[in-house]
Amino acid sequence: MGKIIALILAVVIGIGVGIGSCAFWGRGNGNGSGVGSGDSVPTSESISDSSEENHVSEIRIDKDKIYFDNELCADENELKQRITDIGTEREYIFVQDHAIKGTYDKVNDVLTDLKNALGITINVE
Q1: What does the pLDDT look like over 74-118, one tens digit per residue?
Q2: How far apart, in whole angstroms, are the C-alpha atoms of residue 106 and residue 91?
Q3: What is the pLDDT of residues 24-59, one digit of tens each?
Q4: Which of 62, 52, 56 shows the shortest CA–CA distance to 120?
Q5: pLDDT reported for residue 97
Q6: End-to-end Cα separation, the chain, in angstroms
């Protein structure tokens, strides 16, 4: 009987030491994600938060569609209004993914006009 109690006590102590060492060494944050307190996993929310913190917005053309921070714009005039509303609070990154030339030319003209009028910074990728 004493051996069984000793075995159970050893298992309980082993489990306690394992849990204690995880808490002591910071190997997890307790939510079961496997991510420690110093680690981070990017989410769409944290990515958009980081673009706001960095004050960078993305203007992207994909074929004939215009996107501003991953939101579809109806046309170049809506894009122009969104950028005008924000102004120089941000830098802008201009990305084109297989853009149709006519759409590219319209967006490029709008960006050039706003760059000259508002003094915004536009980086082309």
Answers
A1: 999 999 999 999 988 899 999 998 899 999 999 999 999 999 999
A2: 20
A3: 445 444 545 444 444 444 444 444 444 445 589 999
A4: 56
A5: 80
A6: 74
Q: Are 66 and 100 in contact (CB under 8 A)?
A: no
B/e letters for 9-21, b = 16+ CB within 10 Å, e = fewer, are eeeeeeeeeeeee
Point out which residues pair with 121 in neighbouring strands: 91
SS3 for 124? strand
pTM of this structure: 0.57
CB 123 within 8 A of CB 94: yes
- Alpha-carbon separation of residue 123 from 75, 96, 111, 115 (angstroms): 21, 12, 11, 11
